[in-house]
Amino acid sequence: PRFGNYLKVAVRNLVRYRYMSSINVIGFALGLSVIVLAGEYLNYQLTADRQVPHADRVYRVIREYRSQVYANLGFPSFYQSTVGDQMALATEFEQLPEVEEVAQFVVANAAIMGREFFAEANGKRLAEQKVLFTNTPEGFQEIFGWQVIEGSMQGNLKGQVLITRSTARKYFGDDWSGQTIGKAFSVGDEDYLVKAVIEDVPDNAHFDFNIAAMADSIPYTWGAY
C-alpha cells in the first residue's frame, strides 16, 4: 500500500539522519508543549472567578489614599473597630440605589503580627491558612453563591463557619459526611458551629479560603474587602 511505502521511507530517513531528526522531533515537542502550557495558563487566568453567579455584575471597592491605591476599605481605628463602625461602611453602600447586595470580609493567611491561626474541631488542633472572616454572611453567600454540599446557608449565620470539603475531611476524616453540621469549630480564640460544607474554592478564585468564619465583627485587620 502507498501509506506503507511512505512509512518505510520516513523511517529510513529518520535512521539515516538521526541527529537532524532528533533535533526536529525535540523542537516540535517543545513547541507543542509551550502551546499547551500557554493555553492552560490563559484558561486559568481567563476563567478566574467564573464560578461566581453574575460575575459580570460583581465589583470590588477600593480606595485611594495619598496617591496610593489600596485594595481594601479602612476602618476608623487601626487596632480595633466596633461592630457599628464596621457595618457603617456596608450600610453606606447598601443605601445606593444601584447596589443590590453588599458583602464585607477579609482573607488572612496569619493573625496580625505574623502569629498563626489555629483551628480546632473533633479533637484536632491544627495551624490554618486561608481563613476568611465576614460580618455580612448573608451578602457573602448571595454574591458568591458557594455550592453547599452539606448543611444550609439559611437562617441565622452569625457565629457559624463554612468549611470546604477538603477541610471537612482533614478534621472529621474520610467519613465526614453526616458528622460535621452543628459541630463545634474554633478559629483562633473564637468558638463557632459548622453551618455548611462547600465545594473547595477554585485555585484561581481571587479570594481563596478553606474556612469562612461568620462573625459579628472582622478581627485581625485594619480594613476589609
Roughly what fraction of the amino acids lie in strands? 15-25%
Secondary-structure class: alpha+beta
Mean pLDDT: 85
- Written as H for each helix and E for each strand, in order along the chain, the element string is HHEEEHEEEEHEEHEEEE
User: Radius of gyration from the CA trace?
Assistant: 25 Å
Got a strand count? Answer: 13
Calculate the terminal CA-CA distance, rounded to whole Å. Answer: 69 Å
* Overall helicity: 25-40%
Tell me the major beta sheet: 9 strands, mixed
What overall geometry do the principal axes of the alpha carbons give? elongated
Spans of at least 5 consecutive residues whose pLDDT stays below 50 are none
Q: How many helices does DSSP assign?
A: 5
Summarize the structure in words:
This protein has 225 residues and is of the alpha+beta class. 32% of the residues lie in helices and 24% in strands. It has five helices and 13 strands. It has helices at 2-16, 18-46, 83-94, 137-144, 165-172, and strands spanning 63-65, 68-70, 73-74, 105-108, 117-121, 124-128, 131-134, 148-151, 160-164, 184-187, 190-198, 211-214, 223-224. The strands form three sheets. Strands 4, 5, 6, 7, 8, 9, 10, 11 and 12 form a nine-stranded mixed beta sheet that branches. A two-stranded antiparallel ribbon has the order 1-2. Strand 5 (117-121) and strand 6 (124-128) form a beta hairpin. Helix 1 (2-16) packs across helix 2 (18-46). The chain is elongated. It starts with a helix and ends with a strand. The model has no long low-confidence stretch (mean pLDDT 85).
